[in-house]
Backbone:
């Protein structure tokens, strides 16, 4: 998907890296859904998000 993109600036490199990480996460989550591990994944994501929101509120 990102093979044809050539980053020009450091910001472009950062955006490319973020996009690559997001795609990897989506593919991993997709595999986990197919394996029937979705409830466990959703629980961990919710717990992580709760900690993030609590830290931001402080």
Residues:
């Amino acid at each position: 998907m990102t093979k044809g993109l050539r980053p020009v600036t450091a910001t472009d490199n950062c955006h490319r890296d973020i996009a690559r990480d997001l795609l990897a996460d989506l593919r991993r989550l997709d595999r986990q859904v197919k394996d029937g591990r979705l409830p466990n994944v959703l629980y961990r994501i919710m717990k992580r998000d709760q900690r993030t929101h609590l830290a931001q509120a402080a």
